[in-house]
Amino acid sequence: MKKEKLNLTIIIVVCVTSFVALGACLINKFAPKEKTAAGFAPLSAQYAKACSNDGLCLEKVVLLQGQFVLESENVLKAFVAENSVNGDIEYFCFDSPGGDNDFGKFLGNYISKNKLSTCVADKYFSLDTGKEIETIQSETQCVSMCPYTYMAGNERVMLGKTASFLYHSSSDKFSACGVCLWSSKNESEAEEFNKLLNTYIENGSLPVNEIEVMITKTFKIPPETTKRMSIEQLKHYNVVTEFK
């Protein structure tokens, strides 16, 4: 009898502990966060002006800044719902470390289907305050999944030369409560990116050159590192279609 009571007590303790842990995990996953597990702010959207250091600027810009995360699709949908985007937006511009591939693909398809252009710029200014917006790093960056989303643009502009496009291979990850416990290179994603870039072209976006070659080179870069694409490479592959 004592043994049965002890076993029952152990079962109850394990169940309660598991329930509490699951609750904490769900709260951590879905509650709004100021920082992601990688230490970046999650994606935000705001009207902005994109400029080079020489003073050349683009208007009708939405700045997408921060990391692609699970909630980013809702952020984008809420912004579109709350703002009159038809005719008021010509460019989706980036300052992002990338992140969730599924959201990046969703956003890329949205951009190409709606015939929007994309940009990166030396700096961005808030339309609300007129003040320069602080970049997530020392300079504007478009990293990981971000370049593949940027390439959805009908036209793809680079204002100035300080912004960085940083690439690496895709990875499979196993996470718990928002913490990555294990990751490895995912070679199968290469074909998915190939299809994605060709879908952009089918939707009317200016084509990227030598898609398979570019993706093959990208997937030789380990997922835990990044490599910057030079201005010459950006021109060669037609990642950027217009430099200002």
Strand order of the largest sheet: 6-5-1-2-3-4-8-13
Q: Could you give the distance between the termini?
A: 81 Å
Q: Can you tell me the number of structural domains?
A: 1
Q: Would you list the SSEs in sequence order as H and E?
A: HEEHEHEEEEHEEEEHHEHE
Radius of gyration: 21 Å
Please estimate the helix content: 25-40%
| Helix segment tally | 7
Question: How would you summarize what this structure contains?
Answer:
The protein contains seven helices and 13 strands. It has helices spanning 2-30, 72-82, 101-113, 145-150, 189-202, 211-218, 231-236; strands at residues 44-51, 57-65, 91-95, 117-121, 123-126, 132-133, 141-143, 156-159, 164-167, 171-176, 179-185, 227-228, 242-243.
